[in-house]
Amino acid sequence: MYFLYLLLFIAMLVSFITDRNKTYKAIKIAFKKFMKILPAFASMLVLVSIILGLVPDTLILHYLGKSNMSQGVLMASFFGSITLMPGFIAYPLCGILLKKGVTYTVISAFTTTLMMVGFVTFPIEKRYFGIRVAIIRNVLSLLIAIIVAILTGIFFGEIF
């Protein structure tokens, strides 16, 4: 992580030396965009933290832990498919779940379905692409997400 901070510092220094005005302008734009998403990010993070604080770790591990891997993947795929959450909220949530003992396989299923399968966005997809294409896209995305979760489990030694 420190390597990324160092790389960022070097890039900012080079940008500053090259053109101060453009660098200041870019920092100003980035700060405005950050301030725009900060309320949504903070409120979602607080909400997720409260929910995770109320749900006992034993319950989370019972349904999403290594002992029930297939059930955990199916549940994570279901919740990922019906949830509409931006990546900048989902990834910190997955980090919290990982610290609580949820497997990489389950987290992979959740994040992949979250980003690829769109139950909530299905009406919009249906309108623009047609019902057949929307269904095919969502079913293929779900299958791909489960394959990715299985491959993640194999890679991290959680499966086989």
> What share of residues is helical?
over 70%
- Catalogue the unreliable spans: none
Main structural class: mainly alpha
- Categorize the overall geometry: globular
How many DSSP helices? 8
Mean pLDDT: 89
Domain count: the total is: 2
Radius of gyration: 20 Å
What portion of residues belong to β-strands? under 5%
Number of strands: 0
Q: Characterize the largest beta sheet: strand count, sense, and whether it forms a barrel.
A: none
Order of helices and strands: HHHHHHHH
Could you give the distance between the termini? Answer: 31 Å
Brief overview, please?
The chain has 160 residues and is mainly α. The chain contains eight helices and no strands. It has two domains: 1-54; 56-160, no CATH class.
Write the layout of secondary structure elements.
Layout: H1 2-18, H2 20-54, H3 57-64, H4 69-82, H5 87-100, H6 104-116, H7 122-129, H8 131-155
